[in-house]
Amino acid sequence: MGVTVPKEALDFFKKLEKNNNRDWFNERKKAFKSIEAEVKQVYNSIFETLNTHDEIDKLKMFRIYRDVRFSKNKDPYKTHFGGSFHRAKPKLRGGYYLHIQPNNESFIATGFWEPAPADLLRIRKEFEMDDSEIREILANKKFNSIWGDTFIGDEVKTAPKGFSKEHKAIDLIKKKQYIFTKKYTDKEVLDTNFLKDVNDSFKAIRPYFNYMSDVLTTDLNGVSLI
């Protein structure tokens, strides 16, 4: 792909972690903007490559400024880059996320972070009716060698309202988020193969996205909603 994550990005955030205040940052804002511009090329490159095998209609790279109004942590700045890639709705569902943070805290994520209530109910109803297809996807060796064989994310303690806690698919039904993540070391992030690995990993999620897109664009009888 020709574009790499600059080492300066990780170095800057390591220093910012120890000096997370406006005076320190403002003195180095010009340097940060230069780094940010380089990193934006990384996100743009992934956006373009994703669009060779998927339909991504929007890239959103998040700002460094933290919203501290309702947080006990009053540090004004994030110590990472984050950006999401939105699939073309309504026919395509799911999303991609890239998080770049030093000290081996970088990761990619895919799936459904905050499903709308109607979508969450539809997913749960699908698993209640038939969980065989999603379990087949999760059990695929190539898939789970990259993404693991189980969802991560929040879940209810026993069962959502209207569902039996004794149901054989309750492990899936009680989820509130349907996410997969893959972690990277600093060395891996700076490697020339990093963007290729990110793209290959995102590409490998497609059986899951195809399935969930089909679920979320049809009713329980399989009739299209779009």
UniProtKB/TrEMBL annotation:
Q: What is this protein called?
A: DUF2461 domain-containing protein
Protein origin, superkingdom: Bacteria
Q: Which PANTHER family match?
A: CHROMOSOME 12, WHOLE GENOME SHOTGUN SEQUENCE, DUF2461 DOMAIN-CONTAINING PROTEIN
InterPro entries in the record, alphabetically? CHP02453 (IPR012808), UCP028451 (IPR015996)
